[in-house]
Amino acid sequence: MSAFFLAPSVLGVALFFVLPFLVVIFYSVVNNPIQKRFVFLENFVRVFENTAFRLAAANTLKFSFVAVPLAVVLALTLAFVLERQIPFKSQFRTFILSPMMVPIASVVLIWQVLFHYNGVVNEFMVSLGGDKIDWFKSEHAQVVLVILFIWKNLGYNMILFMAAISSIPRDILEVAMLESATPRQLFFHIKMRYLSPTILFVTILSLINSFKVFREVYLLTGDYPFDSLYMLQHFMNNTFQSLDYQKLSAAAILMSLVMIVIIGGLFLIENYVGKDVEG
Amino acid sequence: MRRKAKRRTTDLVLTCVLAGITILFLIPIVFTICNSFMAASEITANYGVIFETGESGGKKFILETVNLKFIPDMVSFQQYITVLFKSPEYLLKFWNSVILVGPIVVFQLVVACLAAYGFTRYRGRLREIIFFVYIILMLMPYQVTLVPNFLVSQWLNLLDTNWAVWLPGIFSPYAVFLLTKYMRRIPAGILEAARIDGAGEWQIFKNVCMPLCKGAMGSVAILIFIDYWNMVEQPLILLSDPEKHPLSVFLSRINAGEIGLAFAVATIYMIPALLVFLYGEEYLVEGITYQGGIKA
Q1: What pLDDT score does B60 carry?
Q2: Domain check: are B50 and B96 in the same one?
């Protein structure tokens, strides 16, 4: 009977994701889809030696390395602030969450107005006595991207943290307070302990979202952006255009391996840190 | 007493900081909407320098610097009239978005409800493994999943048709994961009681489980909708004909000559998402919190 309920989804997932993924693995180790000569790691070496891939991987990692921790820490801070009894709490939550709903395509224009060479942000910097920066065509381009990323994702992460904070058992906090624990102890030994699964989860989600940042770059600057904005998805798109299946497959497998390693690592950390709290 | 006063000052300071952050967060949305009420000439004068391609300048008046304005010199609905009645291509692209997103939201939800029920009612080693595969798939970025999707669409000759976007969307494991997490919290006793009363499995699903999941389904529908209303990667790779692209991709290609329209089109594209948010914020927040913790 369970087969009846599971069948549509399992068949669909098998057909559109799992089976073709096996083919992708196959493609990644043969010389081409017609001859099918086994070449083992040759395709992977080709991907690694590709300068565009290296650039894209380096940029994506650099971006994730800055954007993900920022998105997690800022969201956690905001969640703690909103936990306090302050006025307009629910309005603040609504407004900070609202960017999540807005399609990126709709706000790209404003972003261009803000960060253009003669744009508002530069005007502001000049009025403070700074120098103008060519935001989209310099090393600073990633800063714009990080801001856009935080703007879009902060509310979502914050909601996850707020839910987690509200589910920290009150009685444990009260007992700790009765035994005269300092606020710092309460924070590090109880709250952070209970939050650690959520911190892990939000980190993973933000990481995945940071891999999606191609969307923003594409809408802002198109197929061939400035070097520092060239992301992995650009590489994939341009490889799709040349229909080089071997390269495409090898790159996809490499990326899935990296994701599995990162996520697995985060799970191990979480198991180690949060093993004594079951929540 | 002093401690209380101190706490109050902290709260006041925090409120001010939050207000500042909120204003920064709202600026992009508010600007886009305000600017959509400017006449074309005003937009060209204020922002022309950004989109100027060189020769297209002509005799138009364009300011040297970008002049960001909240309130138009003269409120005008000219842009909306042009978009809605005079240039059908935008409405066509908007319609493309609706056609692409609508079936995905509906059918992903249907498929996911069935599957989530299957994963909830019956547990076994095999099903746990399948569920784990779903989680892994859900966590993979587009760079990975689009390659298999593309290959299948090619074999089935679906490339460049809406089916190439619809089918992977409908079978995406995301909604299955969320709904399973929700359904597993329904006390097993409720479903078991229905079975003892003689209800068949399908009746339990339809008459007991589904009514309990109404809220969750709303939340999940909203999450699917936002995700696909904003899609860029899938159409770029799976639909090579730009005529079929949704507005989310097309908006970035509005050229210099039509920047006047761009704000109006951007606002129109935002409206469905903002309406969903306005009416469904509580559902959305609830939906997000189902995810708190990957472990099932």
Answers
A1: 52
A2: no
